[in-house]
Amino acid sequence: MWTESEIDGYIRKNLKEGRYLHTLRVVKASGELAKIHGLDPKKARLAAYLHDCKKYMRENELREYLRSHPEGLRDANRPAEVLHGFAAALFAEIEAGIPDLEILEAIKWHTTGTPGMFDLAKVVFLADMIEEDRDFKGIEALRKAAVKNLDAAMLMGLDLSLSYLLKSGKFIDPDTMHARNHFLELVRDKTSSNSKDNI
């Protein structure tokens, strides 16, 4: 299994400087969020280090890479913008030798989200959105939510992502819609349960 140092060497060599620096900020944010929520910061950092490791590849190369492995076949036809996450998870497992399912899931779903994510995956998804150099309408509210409640923050983050995708006229991965509805249901159920407890 590759160490953080080996992964750092790989991404430093293969990513443009801006993307490499973004990765380091996501690593930092992931470690901090994991600690706040009682998760393993080392695992969060490892997933964050690898989340964009295939970002340098072109769309046709990503699709070819996914199709070259049985595990990647079903994801090869997803929207171009999300392919790198699935390719990165495949790379992490096969080439970097990472066996941990939580780490692999966090890498795989860091762009789309999906129903039933491990908390570690939520942390990396959110860290990618709120790293210190990000600046968009709603980010301060999202940063506060990420510290308080991962599910509520996921709903907020997915809503912001969907709004951006709709305005940009981009394809929306089905898992993003399923994830949004999943977290909406979770948050509503929790709010309803809390309201009943206060009666």
N- and C-termini, Cα separation? 52 Å
* Secondary-structure-derived class: mainly alpha
Query: What percentage of residues falls in helices of 4 or more residues?
Result: 55-70%
The helix/strand order is HHHHHHHHHH
Query: How many H/I helical runs?
Result: 10
Q: Would you identify the CATH H-level superfamily? A: Hypothetical protein af1432
Structurally, the number of domains stands at 1
| Molecular shape | globular
Low-confidence stretches: none
Overall CATH architecture: Orthogonal Bundle
- Might you state the CATH topology name? Hypothetical protein af1432
Total beta strands: 0
Radius of gyration, whole Å: 17 Å
Beta percentage is under 5%
Task: Give the class-level CATH name.
Answer: Mainly Alpha
The averaged pLDDT comes out at: 95
**Biggest β-sheet strands, sense, barrel:** none
